[in-house]
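request received
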Amino acid sequence: MKDVMDKKVNTPAMILLILGLSTIIFPLYLTVVIAFKQPSEMTNSISGILSLPKVWSLNNFREAMRITNFWHSLRNSLLITLLTVGLSIAVHSLMGYALGRNKAHSKFYSFVYLFIVSGMFVPFAILMMPIAKQTAELGLANWFGVVVLYVVFYMPMNVLLYSGYLVNIPIALEEAAKVDGASTWRTYWKILFPIMRPMHATVAVLTALAVWNDVMTPLIVMGGSEQNTLPLAQLNFQSQFGTNYNLAFASYLLSLIPILIFYIVCQKQILNGVVNGAVK
Amino acid sequence: MKRSKIKYLEAALCCAAVSMAVGGCGNASDDGKIQIEIVQYKPEAANYFSTVEEEFNATHDDIHLKISSPNDAMTILRTRFIREDYPDIIGIGGDINYSYFVEAEILADVSDYEGLQNINQAYLDIDEALELVPTDGIYAVPYVANAAGVLYNKDMFEEHGWEIPQNWGELIALCDEIKAEGILPFYFGFKDTWTCLAPWNSMAVDLSPADTTKQVNRGQTTFSKEYWEISEKYLKLLDYGPSDPFAYGYNDACTAFARGESAMYPIGSYAAPQILSVNPDLNLDSFVMPACDDHDGNTLNSGIDLQFCVTAECKNKEAVYEVLDFLYAEENLQKYIDAQTAIPCKEGNFQLPSILDGMTDYILEGNMKDYQDHYYPSEMAVDAQIQTFLLNKDVDAFLSKFDTDWQRYNRDIIRLVQDYEKEHGTAN
Amino acid sequence: MKNDRERTFLLITIPILALFVCFNTIPLIRGVIYSFTNFKGFGSYDWIGFRNYIDLFTDARVGKSYLFTFKLAVVSTVVVNVLSLVLALGLNSRIRAKSFFRGAYFLPNILGALVVGYIFNYFFTYIIPAVADMIGIEALKSSILSNPSAAWIGVMVVCAWQAIAMNTIIYISGLQTVPEDVYEAGGLDGATGWKQFKYLTFPLIIPFFSINMVLCVKNFLMVFDQIMALTKGGPAQSTESISYLIYNNGMSGGQFGFQSANAVVFFIVIVAVSVAQMRFSGKKEEQL
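response:
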């Protein structure tokens, strides 16, 4: 980290990034402003939409929290997301390891690899009805069933990522441990798993993001039960004949915060560049 | 450092395990009460239904009622049907889904329900007509209806001395007059394709037979013939709307109309809450779309917005009827009408919402016909086809596609109808 | 020892594979079975053999949705990969407020579809035409979302805006695998700027490039949320993506059987496209 201070800041990159930021600041500004306004302040004129709300009050946020049963839904969302992420890191990295290390020389593993990765391309709509039926048959029509499904649905992408990452990790590391008499299982957890930390963080972010915003899976698996996730509860703001955008925007801003914090924590892990040190 | 990730993982797993133990889904306690569950498809009425649920449970010791008003109820219902987990009562609209549910034998015959006697016959007839092939039973109890026509800005009309048009000629003359004063006659939100159906439906009731689709299914007529006049007249309306109506959605149109950017908005009564949320002071009223050249030919476009059906799997019909009695009690129905600007399907002394003033005569006379789109299969996307037509303005192409697509999308229904007729002779 | 390694790999693979088969393959097979019926999604159904598949190849609407979806996928993939690679390089270079920038550029991906749809609708319907009016660009004076031949560009912009965050993250994690000393060695040889990227950085992140290409093509071919939020298939059915048709007509409409057939064919098409892609980039990797 020290040498960052020594070298000078990359100015062209800074300028580019700041310019690009406008494409994000502007929509975000609109979101925040609308979240604070009342429905009666909504207009179709540009000056109207850009103007600041007449009163800055947290009422929209309070009302949005009441409608979505915020703390309860948040708990469900957090539970499902964290558990999915934890299981994904454990299960998918193992699978990525087994397949990534063997697919080059074994027909069986190469087939399994393609079989799983191609699962990524199954249109969800074709699975919906059978899954609704199957989860109910197995007694999984609840949040745990949702987690199991997520672990399966995101397996293709994560296996692809993990086995891609393993290409850059020399096999010599494992062989060195083997010489010391450690089993393959132990070697994996002691040496490889920690090395893959940037990838764990990447997988965590991508999986968490997909899970956090997903409506469909919880809708068909546990829809109609009293248990809501945040995106499910947020469906309450829109119906065909009327949408309260102000409350909806307030609610979306609220649900954005946890995942943003999660990302900021994870992205530091992505950057630590453990591989560099390990290879040397 | 190395272990930190594993620790996170462990922590997550522990959290999950704990909450699984603590917060397991609570099944209602077994206190001998009969459990009745309603799933109804109008989330905007969720507040009303949770009040009803509370009041019902407070006054009934032997029955426990649960009403859920989920968004995307159709998806939820379908997934529950496939799981064979049927609610006792479902609240749905009087549209093609109802037709399908009757055909699929998911619903129970409720003709023994005494409350049916007080239901407006016009709406029972609509339900009867929705059945793909005639049946002996009654499978739904209509609750409320909505109506479509033209909403107008009453203050603006009074200020300029404009009269409510009684026929097509007067409507066009009125539009010309409004336009001449520099005001936009209509607003449209055609970016949301379903809004294209509102003027379509309200003109179709005036200009084509109520059972057009059934006649087509029997091979007695074609849409090219029945819908020609509507299509021509619809194109005419475009001249009096915004220059690019396909840029604006339903929400834009509601906002614009509420802000006085147009004098009229051809849409249904269901739009009133959204319009009034933008401008609560707007003096809103409605009139029947006068698409006929002759005033007497005009009809109100009204269909069932919400009706309750008992599922065939339901085991406690008496309890269900008790719940229905409660729902149809006049004071409850009135509350619904007030909250949702709806039209009751029950006869009685109800106070209709003021925005329906211009339509009241038709409602009282029972001079109304169902929305034609309630007979269109949603996958045919007639709304999008109308939007395409309004963009291309080619009546011939639109209607001939309508005819060919209809045969394709309704193949199974047409076969069903023909089989039925072979067996029973042509029913009329 | 060799046995231990092989046994461990098998013990890892078999249970996870079983789980996968149970919740992905079996439901898929059940879905495929529906594609030979006229199932509406509920009630009874009849076996109709290959009728759905025959219909599929004569359905102009399905054909149109394939054209639209592939056009969107190709253009968006190129746009997203170029922009997110530039962004990843920028975010990975020596800049101030790194965390802030990384957080900010991540935001588009977490804003809900309702918010994104509303804001971009507003943007295309009101703001762009007003700006075009001010500076006098005739072509942009009416909303591009109301123009059947241009609406796909609007969808593309929103897809790209949302997708860049995810691809950037993958590129950034790829850039972490490039050892610092490669640059140092390259610097001595005079490789800087574009040359450094072309000959040193890019070859090393090729695996991530191919992952991103595959994910991008897959995500855009299966585009659904952005269509729902922005155009709902309009205007004039010009932006109906394949997934939109499958979901809308299969789940919400009564065409479950037919759209299952559509989904089966679509699945085969995407797998074919992706295998071709992986073959191609696999060869590239070997060359370098």
